[in-house]
Design goal:
It holds the Pfam family FAA_hydrolase. By secondary structure, the protein is α+β, with helices and mostly antiparallel strands. The chain has two domains: 71 residues, no CATH class; 240 residues, Fumarylacetoacetate hydrolase, domain 2. Helices cover 19% and strands 32% of the residues. The strands form five sheets. Strands 1, 2, 3, 4, 5, 6, 7, 8, 11, 13, 15 and 21 form a twelve-stranded mixed β-sheet that branches. The chain has a five-stranded mixed β-sheet with strand order 9-23-22-18-19, with no helix packed on it. A two-stranded antiparallel ribbon has the order 10-14. A hairpin with a 5-residue loop joins strand 1 and strand 2.
């Protein structure tokens, strides 16, 4: 199934599922038996899924045309957000660009950082470039949503703890990131202003046809202003989500609604592609990420008021 969050005509954010070209308002059609938020649904999804299956047979109210509703982030309020760095090609490319060598420790453990789970953005939402940033980048990733509470989860058990998957764009201010990480902390301010997810959360059973052992054969594509700039495949990931879950849950409890990012697919950002492929992102640019089975996630970089950004021209000339 595909689950979404969308804005109702009165401005409220509602939870629903997708049926063909329609969105079903789960709280309305169930007369309150189902919650009005996706997070609350995930917390008790084992029970709620059976209610959904019963309702699907005779839904005739609370139906909206998918093209006519405003989708927001399918999980607007994840309980936490850990982003891993699980694609070897990305790490090799990024370390080379920074003039470093690959750390041997990367091959010993799946590594991650905590990012801002209060800065989640949805499909078609404008992304504001940080005012001191002139090297704005996208990152093509896949997100995994935890479905039940667990601690010290083994790789073999981890699949049972996954609710579903979504597309994830880990927006990055490269200049802010590199300044901060020079003192061996971060990326923090290089990442905490926005992360986009969506358009849906797709339950793991829908990806079963693409499964190859503990990975998925999913094409991953990024476009900027309608032009394809990179293509990859999720099956090339070095660490699987079950391995990431084992690492994240070591001596720590994971909760329903926790979000894990895969890290960037190889060549899945401008940092790796280089200026010959595309310049850093500018206001007005449209970035479109697509992953097989997960849909398309599109965002535009917000227009800026130059009066409010008097240092932009100076920063551009000094950092390009």
């Amino acid at each position: 199934m595909k689950f979404v969050s969308f804005k109702h005509a009165n401005g409220d954010v509602r939870a629903g599922w997708v049926e063909g070209n329609n969105v079903i308002d789960m709280n309305y059609v169930s007369e309150g038996k189902l919650p009005s938020t996706v997070l609350e649904f995930i917390k008790k999804h084992d029970h709620y899924l059976s209610v959904v299956e019963d309702l699907k047979r005779h839904v005739d109210i609370g139906i909206f045309d998918l093209e006519e509703v405003e989708l927001v982030a399918p999980l607007p309020n994840p309980t936490s957000f850990r982003d891993f760095v699980a694609f070897e090609t990305h790490v090799l490319n990024a370390t080379k660009r920074a003039g470093h060598t690959m750390a041997k420790e990367w091959y010993e453990i799946p590594v991650f950082y905590f990012s801002n789970h209060h800065a989640i953005k949805g499909p078609n939402e404008a992304i504001a470039r940080p005012k001191k940033c002139v090297r704005l980048d996208f990152e093509l990733e896949m997100g995994c949503i935890i479905g039940k509470e667990g601690k010290n989860i083994s790789v073999e058990e981890a699949e049972d703890y996954i609710f579903g998957y979504t597309i994830l764009n880990d927006w990055t201010a490269r200049d802010l990131q590199m300044q901060e990480m020079a003192v061996h902390l971060g990326p923090a301010k290089g990442k905490d202003f926005a992360t986009s997810i969506g358009p849906y959360i797709v339950t793991k059973d829908e990806l079963a046809p693409y499964q190859v052992n503990d990975r998925y054969n999913l094409e991953m594509t990024a476009k900027i202003n309608g032009k394809i700039v990179t293509e990859g495949n999720f099956k090339d990931i070095y660490y699987s989500f079950p391995q990431m879950i084992e690492r994240a849950s070591a001596e720590v409890t994971l909760y329903p609604g926790d979000l894990l990012g895969s890290g960037t697919v190889g060549f899945g950002c401008i940092l790796e592609l280089g200026p010959d492929v595309h310049r850093w992102l500018e206001p007005g640019d449209e970035i479109e990420l697509e992953i097989t089975g997960l849909g398309t996630l599109k965002n535009t970089i917000a227009k800026e008021d130059i009066v409010d950004n008097p240092t932009i021209d100076r920063l551009k000339s000094s950092t390009r």
